[in-house]
TrEMBL record, chain B:
Gene3D superfamilies: eubacterium ventriosum atcc domain. InterPro entries: SporV_AA, SporV_AA_N_sf. The keyword Lyase does not apply. Keywords: Membrane, Transmembrane, Transmembrane helix. The lineage of its organism: Bacteria, Bacillati, Bacillota, Bacilli, Bacillales. The keyword Transmembrane helix applies. Residues 3-89 form the Stage V sporulation protein AA domain. This is Stage V sporulation protein AA.
Amino acid sequence: MITGKVVFGLFIGLASGFAVGAGFVAFVTVLGVIPRLTQLTKTMQFIHYYEAAIIAGVVIGTWLGLQEVKLFWTKWLLVPIGLADGIFNGMLAAALTEVLNVFPILAKRMGIQEKVIYLMMALVLGKIIGSLFQWIYYVDL
Amino acid sequence: MDLIYLRMRNRVHVQKNQQVRLKDVAKFIGDDEQVKKIEEEVLLTVTHEDKNIIIIDLVQVIEAIQAIDQSIEIQTFGPSQTIIEVIYEKQKVSFLAFTAVWLLLFLGAGMTIMNFHVDVSMGEVHQKLFTLITGREDRKPLLIQIPYSFGLGIGMILFFNHFFKKRFNEEPSPLEVEMFNYQQDLDQYVIMNENKESNRHLDNR
């Protein structure tokens, strides 16, 4: 009886992990962040290692997130982690904006093809300032 | 029998009341004298009724050439139609409209990122990460959150390969490719729909 329950539990855990993992990979693939990074750094040949990095990050992140581990390392380690976290999220956000195809239509409608960069900077500054506002001020309200 | 090669141009900008000659819509190669005669032939004059897009199909050009000399043999390559865009006056960008859109995007981007953070409980994750690394608790782990916020911007700039006018390498950015694709789609549409040669309605005469 007990082993039956355990096996069933393991099965459910594995199945939900499959679904979430597949969803994550599909999301990252559709947005094309990894190809973009390899293109910027001209490191196409290492793409398999980047895959491994994503998988390792997901597995380790999942495990640590579900445990109550405390590492007692220096708090300054948080600065590079936060920065990397932000860059990755920023790339996801940019890719999402691009997939949605808003800019070409907006620029065409307004006849400002050459000034799209300025509209893009509006998004970038909006994200930075919105995020800073939230963490520094808004959470205290 | 003379052989003439012709290649239609992709896109031509003209002004109102301007005469469009064959040399404006296509490039001709062949016997010098003959090419000169063909090139100077006036194909049409832009009138107000033309609105802002005229499509010249390859067959119209061939027709015009045959009207000059029946015996010319024509070899074509390249696109099979030219898009003539009539520029009425230099489009003026309204500074007010631009500012309005800029502010809309700025505030909208700021609000959506805040909504996103609340939606995925980003704050809690940051608090937990702080505890994980340092072993202490902090309700406002700004040490993660401030670099994170700037990272957001850096990531977006990296993705688009642009920092105002500065670009990181020669390749077109995804945004430019996207603009190009959109223009191609628009062109494809007008080629099919504004081209007198490609649509014929025989149903309700």
